[in-house]
Automatic annotation (TrEMBL):
Entry keywords, A to Z: DNA-binding, Transcription, Transcription regulation
Protein's name in the database: FadR/GntR family transcriptional regulator
UniProt cross-references to CDD domains, sorted A to Z: WHTH_GntR
Pfam family, one: GntR
Key word 4Fe-4S present: no
The organism's place on the tree of life at top rank: Bacteria
Coiled coil: none
Organism from which the protein derives: Roseibium aestuarii
All residue ranges annotated as the HTH gntR-type domain in the record: 1-67
């Protein structure tokens, strides 16, 4: 449901030719219009905020956002909680460790390949919401292949934080193709049965995602 809200609002902005600063329907109006709950509306709008597509102003309303003067990190929603650099540092260690234990069978490999292609398609048309959905699916599939329940539970517990750190770089819509190519490299190594190379490619993907947010993990600090 939240993704449905995000897709509708993104399409409405495009189809209505709206520009930065233009108002959007209220949460109540979206709930009635789309026949979804208010929590689903809030979650969908949160996704759009992280992608830099909308801006929510308390007691004023929802407006089309502009990314022209901002950086991807400016749209990080956890600035009062987790530091974005720390999240990327954690992911660069945690996710390859989970992948090192993964059992990637033919069915899982086909799912990953389909996700990569869908991400390529989304990048080609600049569909940030579809790209974010596929990015989430890709990383979820990798964790589902890990037989260690603790890794999966940690991922589930931190799902929102980790997911938003995946989405923030997509504020740069023109760079979504880079994410697709990085995912494809991981899958290529998995298809060849080279798990260490796949883990290295995953670590590099996270490093490059951080770099798209002007965070250089090689510098430390």
């Amino acid at each position: 449901m939240p993704a449905r809200v995000a897709r509708w609002v993104q399409g409405h902005i495009r189809d209505a030719g709206l520009s930065a600063g233009d108002p959007l329907p209220s949460q109540r109006e979206l709930s009635v219009l789309l026949g979804v709950s208010r929590p689903s509306v809030r979650e969908g709008l949160s996704m759009l905020e992280t992608l830099g597509l909308v801006r929510i102003e308390q007691r004023r309303g929802i407006f089309v956002s502009s990314t022209s003067d901002g950086r991807p990190a400016d749209f990080w929603p956890f600035e009062k909680g987790y530091d974005l650099r720390d999240v990327y540092r954690f992911r660069a260690d945690f996710e390859p460790s989970a992948l090192a234990l993964a059992v990637v069978d033919a069915r899982r490999l086909a799912q990953l390949e389909a996700s990569v292609q869908a991400l390529v398609n989304a990048a080609a048309i600049g569909d940030a919401v579809a790209a974010a959905e596929q990015d989430t699916l890709f990383h979820d599939l990798l964790f589902e292949a890990c037989p260690n329940r603790l890794y999966r539970d940690i991922r589930r517990h931190l799902a929102k934080v980790m997911q938003d750190s995946q989405w923030v770089p997509m504020v740069l819509v023109e760079r979504i193709g880079d994410t697709a190519r990085e995912h494809a490299e991981i899958v290529t190594h998995l298809a060849a049965g080279d798990i260490p190379a796949a883990c290295a490619a995953l670590r590099n993907h996270i490093r490059l995602a951080a770099l798209r947010c002007d965070i250089d993990l090689s510098l430390g600090g």
